[in-house]
Amino acid sequence: MRLLMFAASLNENSLNKKLIKVAEKLAQKQGVSTELVDFAKFSGPLYNADIQNKVGFPAEITFFVDQLKQADGLVIASPEYNYSIPGTLKNLIDWVSRLSPLPWKNYPILLMSASPSLVGGNRGLWATRVPLETCLAYVFPDMFSLASAHTSFDEAGQLKDKTLAERLEKNIASFIPYVAALRGIKS
């Protein structure tokens, strides 16, 4: 099994980039192959039907779809912007939704977030579920939100709170059989 993973942030010091690195190590610990990609490689121009009709799909979008097709599942760590989905992530979802056949259809996705707020970016995750599920993706029911993330990582980049670390590990461990079942992967 192979998981594509990224933090939906262009910020070099993003808390979500720290979180996705922890998630990647936990997935690898479960024996899963991972591909952690910098979200900037998927950051295409704002969706515009004129661009699509005149030029086609931008290279960043086709690169993302190629990566998506090579993986069995997707893990996204996303910041929350103004109680919602970051515009850059919504833009990626919109571009991909214009392809046929629809790459999001029946695709297993795990959402997580890290935020300095006390709700951990949870509102943004719920806002992110909507377009993905509208595009027929299977968003894993148990999302992971890391509140007060600016104080949650130790110097080695690991979660300080053992209970939260165990919850994240359980979340990743539960997502793997979900992906296997949806993709018909025998263990």
Structural account:
The radius of gyration is 16 Å and the shape is globular. The chain has a single domain, classed as Rossmann fold (3-Layer(aba) Sandwich). Helix content is 42%, strand content 14%. The chain is α/β, with parallel strands linked by helices. The chain has helices at residues 15-29, 49-54, 59-70, 87-96, 122-134, 162-183; strands spanning 2-7, 33-36, 73-77, 108-114, 138-139, 144-146. Helix 1 (15-29) links the parallel strand 1 (2-7) and strand 2 (33-36). The protein is built from six helices and six strands; from the N terminus they run βαβααβαβαββα. Strands 1, 2, 3, 4, 5 and 6 form a six-stranded parallel β-sheet that branches.
